[in-house]
Design goal:
Layout lengths: L12 H6 L13 E9 L4 E6 L7 E2 L6 E6 L5 E6 L2 E6 L6 E4 L2 E6 L3 E7 L7 E22 L5 E18 L17 E18 L5 E6 L5 E8 L5 E7 L4 E7 L7 E2 L6 E6 L5 E6 L3 E6 L2 E8 L6 E11 L5 E10 L5 E8 L6 E5 L1 E7 L13 E4 L3 E3 L5 E8 L5 E12 L2 E4 L1 E3 L3 E2 L4 E7 L2 H10 L2 E10 L4 E11 L10
Parallel strand pairs: 28-36
Antiparallel strand pairs: 1-2, 1-26, 2-3, 4-5, 5-6, 6-7, 8-10, 9-10, 10-11, 11-12, 12-13, 14-15, 15-16, 16-17, 18-19, 19-20, 20-21, 22-23, 23-24, 24-25, 27-29, 29-34, 30-31, 30-33, 30-35, 32-34, 35-36
Length: 495
């Protein structure tokens, strides 16, 4: 057969261009902060972050196609892939902005059937019946964003092309829609063509997305992808060479500088700089981690052994910790029995202490000495009821609510006055004295006696209630104002 998995034989690059990256980028020094990663069901993902031991996971985005988070040098910003494009946000998940939008489409032609099909692998043999169908995939995507040291730019991969492949499969009889199962020899054949397929490296503004430089221009001899900035402004990336059919790691001293080949493949990918910018970590053959100097030279290879019961595994990305002592890995385990498992692991730069921290993919380690991101504190608030409030026959009604914030609060009524016509009088207020965090309390008033009589004569009146609220964050007076009318009201009153 030509291939057994659709897209696996695409000159190397159609698959690279349209697949979402797992690569994280942590090229900057600092204290070890949180780890950002993508988490989902394998078909969708959102950006999360967690402590370096996996504790306190926090969801940062609500998108379903968010991958490959990358922290800025100060740890305060995150760039990531979204919907074939690039987005940025603050490290706590606020301030999302879509900088670049890509595109991806797929289509297929109606199938055709043919009898006595000549086997391309055995020309002397014919296959009684085959189904022939052509599929097309087109894309223009942006991937693998990485912040410049000053945070003003992003380096990223840009890829585009159109991939056309024809699937010919043996069927049991003419016009049978089902291919024969089992991927048997002589049952499946693929023919593919990649039109104008290319992938190259560019830099863009981290605030607007406007292109600022073409780091490595497009070429008919190779494709470049998975770039990463260093703390010194150098750029590492992966390059697939058509002639050698190898993927190797290259380093350019700055955008536009001539790149230097630092590894020789055959399958080296997903480079990431050490915090001091002197070394590059990368993946080799999908199941090993390599470390090499930025100018090439001696190579260290770290084996990542499979645990018991695992048939095989592969790595999706690697990144240094900000203090340079550890690596964070994306790893998929395929057990002998059961479902595969995608997880984030940490280990020492010498390969020791491998430990899983969370499920997910595409991790990056936050370089910061600041406290880990926490949800923003929520203040307490008061809200007056809208419109005219009809009191019950006994003169009772709710004029609004007070909502406690992210900490418990204490309530104290300071004053409550009703003005009806020319008469101003005090009214009674029923209100809880303490509320738990996030709870609300209705502010209920009771108008009686001469005050109620004055309200009935005037037809309506204005009530003002002042409540002092105190919690761990603040202490201030809330003022609630409403217009009251006398009369029965089943919604607002009680009998």
């Amino acid at each position: 057969m030509f291939a057994t998995v659709i897209l696996a034989a695409v000159s190397g690059l159609a698959l690279l261009a349209i697949s979402m990256s797992e690569s994280g980028r942590a090229a900057f020094p600092g204290a070890n902060g949180r780890v950002a990663y993508s988490y989902g069901d394998g078909y969708s993902g959102s950006i999360w972050s967690a402590e370096a031991n996996g504790a306190s996971p926090l969801r940062l985005t609500t998108g379903s196609n968010d991958y490959g988070p990358s922290y800025s040098a100060n740890g305060g910003r995150v760039a990531f892939e979204r919907e074939n494009g690039i987005a940025v946000m603050n490290a706590d998940g606020s301030g999302e902005t879509q900088l670049l939008s890509g595109s991806y489409s797929s289509s297929s032609e109606p199938p055709e059937w043919q009898s006595d099909f000549q086997n391309p692998e055995e020309p002397s043999e014919t296959i009684p019946f085959v189904k022939i169908q052509t599929f097309t995939e087109a894309w223009h995507v942006f991937s693998s964003p990485s912040f410049s040291p000053d945070g003003t730019q992003l380096v990223l991969g840009e890829g585009s092309g159109e991939f056309i492949y024809t699937l010919t499969c043996a069927v049991a009889e003419d016009e049978d829609p089902e291919c024969l199962s089992g991927y048997q020899e002589g049952h499946y054949f693929y023919d593919e063509e990649c039109i104008d397929c290319e992938s190259h490296i560019i830099t863009v503004s981290a605030s607007s997305g406007a292109q600022t430089a073409e780091v490595v221009p497009p070429s008919n001899s190779h494709q470049d992808y998975e770039p990463a900035f260093s703390s010194a402004g150098a750029i590492a990336f992966s390059r697939w060479d058509y002639s050698s059919e190898k993927t190797s790691i290259y380093v350019a001293g700055s955008p536009g500088a001539a790149p230097v080949k630092v590894t020789n493949g055959p399958y080296d990918s997903a480079p990431d700089f050490s915090p001091d910018g002197t070394r590059v970590a990368f993946l080799r053959d999908g199941d090993e981690v390599g470390i090499v100097g930025v100018g090439g030279g001696p190579l260290t290879v770290l084996l990542v052994p499979n645990p018991a019961g695992v048939k095989y595994s592969y790595l999706g990305s690697v990144a240094f910790s900000p203090d340079g002592s550890k690596l964070v890995l994306a790893r998929t385990l395929n057990p002998v029995a059961g479902k595969s498992e995608r997880g984030i692991y940490t280990m020492g730069v010498d390969g020791s202490g491998l430990a899983k921290i969370v499920d997910g993919s595409g991790p990056d380690w936050q370089p910061t000495a600041l406290p880990a991101p926490q949800p923003a504190p929520v203040p307490f608030k008061g809200k007056s009821a809208k419109g005219k409030i009809k009191l019950s026959k006994s003169g009772k009604g709710s004029i609004g609510v007070i909502v406690c914030g992210s900490s418990p609060c204490a309530l104290e009524v300071l004053s409550a006055k009703l003005t009806a016509g020319k008469k101003t009088c005090a009214v009674k207020v029923k209100l809880s004295k303490r509320l738990a965090a996030g709870k609300s309390a209705s502010v209920r008033v009771k108008v009686a006696g001469r005050c109620l009589a004055a309200l009935k004569r005037a037809g309506k009146g204005s009530v003002v209630v002042r409540v002092r609220v105190s919690d761990a964050l603040d202490r201030r007076v809330l003022t609630l104002r409403s217009t009251l009318t006398a009369g029965a009201n089943k919604k607002h009153g009680k009998k």
